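Two quick folds needed for the group meeting slides. Do the first one here.
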Amino acid sequence: MQGTGQFMPLAGSAPHIGKQDSLETVDEWRVEMVVDDAFITAAVIALKEAHPYETPAYDVIKVLDF
C-alpha cells in the first residue's frame, strides 16, 4: 500500500533525507509479509539494516491457529 509519511529529524540526528528540526514528507510503501517463527528475528534485523531511516516503523503480529 502506498501512502505519505512525515517525520522531523531531531537535533543531533543524521537524517538520510531532510534537515534537522524541519518537517519532511515522503512517499512511502507499507509492506506486509508472513514469516515463520524461526525466521522472524532475522527478518526484523534485515529490515533494520536495510532501512534508510534511523528508526523504521514496523509491527510484528503473531497469527494464531485456532
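Then this one, please, same format:
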Amino acid sequence: MKIINESIFKGIAGGRNIGSRPKGVVIHNDGGSMTPSQYVIWLKQRYKNGESSKGFAHYYGNRDEMARVEDTYNAAWHTANYEGNQNYVGYEVCQSFSATDEEFLANEQAVFKQVAEDMIFWGLDINRNTVRLHREFSSTDCPHRSWVLHGKSVNAVKDYFIEQIMKYVVAASTNNNTQNKLVQEVLSQGTKDKVDGLGYRMHVQSNNKYKGGTLGYVKEAATAGTTGKALRAEWLEVLYDGKGSPIEINTHIQRKGWLGYRKGSQGTKGESLRMEAVRIRICDTELAKKYSIHYRVHVQGIGWTGWVKDGEVAGTTGKSKRLEAVQIKLIKK
C-alpha cells in the first residue's frame, strides 16, 4: 500500500477548533476512473486554478494507494452541505466507473481500513450516526456503486459499511492487546549530564514499540533524535558549555507555525505536535566572531537534508512532514 500525504488545500474550506474531533465520516464513490496518485495531480491543478469549491474530499483510496489531500482537522467541500463539510471527514473510494466488482470491493476494503484507524484515533463510536452517506446530506446518487452492491437503501449500505469497518477495529484491538503485552523499547541516547562545548538533545514521541521522551545530550556532529523508527521530534535544546544563553532556536511546529527565537531550547512537550523545521543561530557576540553554527535534519520521507547555517531553515514547512533527528556542529571562521 502506497501512502501519500499531500495537504493540497491548506484549510481553504475552513477548519474545526484545534483539538476538536469530527462527528463522523462520509464514504463516497468517486464517479471516475482515476487512481489516488492521479487524483493528487488533478486536485493540485484544481487548487492552482482556483476551483477548489468544485469539491474535494480528505482521502482518496484504492487497493494499492491511500492519498490524504487535506488535513482531517480542516473541513473539505465533499457533501455540498455545511454540516457534512465542516464536521465529517470524507473518503473517496476510487475507480467506481472502471474497476471490476472484485477490484472495487478491494478498493472499498482499503478505505474501510483507513476509516477504522481514524475512528479509533478520534475515539468515535461506529454506528449509523457516525458513518454517513453523501446522499444523506445532499441530492446525489453517491455512493452509486456501493449502493448497487450493498442493498440499495441508506441503512443497508451503512450497515454494510459499519460491519466492514468493525472488522478492522476488532483486528486492531486484538493487535494492540498483543502489543501491550510486549515491553516497550526504552530509547537511550547520549548522557544525562551536560557536555563541554556544543551539546544538544531532543524530545521525541513514544508509541507502543518505543518509549521516547527527552533523550540525553550528544556532542557536536552526533545525531540527536531517531531515524528509521517513524518517531516525531517535538522539542530541541542546544547548549554551549552547559549554557543555553549563547544559542537561539526557532522551531516550526505542526499547526502552530514558527514559534520565534528562544535561547537554549524551543518546541513543545506533551502536545503530540511534530516539529517540522528549525533555525539555529549564535547570539553570543564573542562566540559568533569565532564560529558559524551548521546543522542538518532528518525528515520523514526525505532523509537527511543538506547542511545549512546561521539561522537558515532546515526541514520543511507546509508539507506535514515530521522532523526526526538533527546534527549540529560549529565551524571556525
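Slide caption for protein two: Helices lie at 36-48, 82-87, 101-122, 144-149, 154-180, 285-290.
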